[in-house]
Amino acid sequence: MKELAETGVDIFRAKELLETGELVGIPTETVYGLAANALDALAVAKIFQVKDRPSFDPLIVHIASFAKLNAYVREIPQWAEQLAEKYWPGPLTLVLPKHDSIPDIVTSGLDTVAIRVPNHSLTLELLAQLAFPLAAPSANPFGFISPTTAQHVLDQLGPKISYVLDGGPCTVGIESTIIGEVEGETTILRFGGLSQEAIESVIGPVRIQVQHTSNLLAPGGLESHYAPRHPVRLGTGVPEGFDLDRIAALRFTTPLAGIPHGNQRVLSPKGDLVEAATNLFAALRDLDKLDVDLILAEPVPNLGLGRAINDRLKRASAKY
Ligand code: TXA
Ligand code: MG
C-alpha cells in the first residue's frame, strides 16, 4: 500500500500536483474536497476511482470568483447573479447550463454544471494561482460521512492521495446548498450550509425538490448517504430491546438520561443550529468509533440550517 498522504499549507505543492493531473485534498468552509483539474477528464476520472463513486453522480466545480463564471456556463439567470452577488464566496452551489469547456465526466453527461466559489482563504489563493477550476466532491469514500478536518481526509483516503492542504476545521461543517432550475422554476436541490430563508430573502419563494432517491436530479440524493458503520436511528427515546450502555446518542442541546455520558455528543447546548451544523459530522464520526450497537440521533428544529442537518441525519439512518 502507498504511504499516507502528507498534510500541510504548501499551496505551491498543491498547485504542482494539480497541474500534473494529480488529486489534492482541499479545505473549504463546508467540508473538505477531493480536487482535480476540472478541465482534464483523465484527472477527474481519478476522483471517481479514489472515492469509489458511481460515475453517474456529477461533481461540483470550484472557481476563484464570480468573474470566472462566464467561462464555464452558457447563461447566468438573474436569480443566480443575485444569489452569487450576495453569498459568494460561500456555501451555495448554482446549477447552470454548462459550457463546452467543462468535460462531460464532470457533469455525468448532464447539460448543466454545478459551480461555486468556496469561502476559504487557502483554497481561494490556490484557485487564484491556477489556470483552471477545480472539480471536487466531498473527500470521503462514496456514501460515508463527509470530512471536516484534514485528519478526517487522511483517515479515509490517506493511502490513495498524496497531499491534503490543511485549512483547519471547516467553519460551516455541512455541504453547500444546491440550487438550480427545474421546469423553469428556481429550486433547492440539496439543503446545505446556506438556509432556505437566506435564499428567499434575496430572490423570493423557491421550490424544494430534495426528497428524490434517483441520482441525477437529486444531488447528494441517494437515500442512504453520510452513513456511519453503526446503525443510526432517528428519535428522542431509547428504542426497546437495546442495552442502555450500548447506545450512543447524538443530541441537539442536552444529553439523554440513562445513556453513559461518554457515549453522547451534544451539538449545541445553546440551541444554535449554525453551531450544530459545524459539529455534526465530527460528532457522528466520534460516536461511530465507540463499541456500541446503535447511534440514536435526535432530529433538530426544521428551520434554517436545521433542514440540512435533518436531511443528513435522515440519510445516515436510511438503512435502518
Ligand atoms: O460543500 C460542498 O458542496 C462540497 C465542497 C467540497 O464544495 N462538495 C460536495 O460535493 O458536497 P459532492 O460531490 O459530495 O456533492 C455534490 C452534489 C452531488 O450529489 C451531485 O449529485 C450534485 O452535487 N450535482 C453536481 N452536478 C449537478 C448537476 N449538474 N445537476 C444536479 N446536481 C448536481
Ligand atoms: Mg458528498
Spatial arrangement of strands, main beta sheet: 1-8-2-3-7-4-6-5-9-10-11
Whole-number average pLDDT?
A: 93
Q: What structural category do the secondary elements indicate? A: alpha/beta
Number of helices: 9
* Radius of gyration based on Cα positions: 19 Å
Query: Strand count, sense and closure of the main sheet?
Result: 11 strands, mixed
Low-pLDDT residue intervals, each spanning 5 or more residues: 212-219
End-to-end span in angstroms? 34 Å
Kindly estimate the percentage of residues that lie in beta strands according to DSSP: 15-25%
Total beta strand runs: 15
| Shape estimate | globular
* Approximate helicity band: 25-40%
Structure report:
The chain is an alpha/beta fold. The chain is built from 9 helices and 15 strands. An 11-stranded mixed β-sheet has the order 1-8-2-3-7-4-6-5-9-10-11, with helices on both faces. It has a 4-stranded parallel β-sheet with strand order 12-15-13-14, covered by helices on one side. Strand 9 (177-182) and strand 10 (185-190) form a beta hairpin. Bound molecules: threonylcarbamoyladenylate (TXA) and magnesium ion. The site of magnesium ion has 4 residues, from loops.
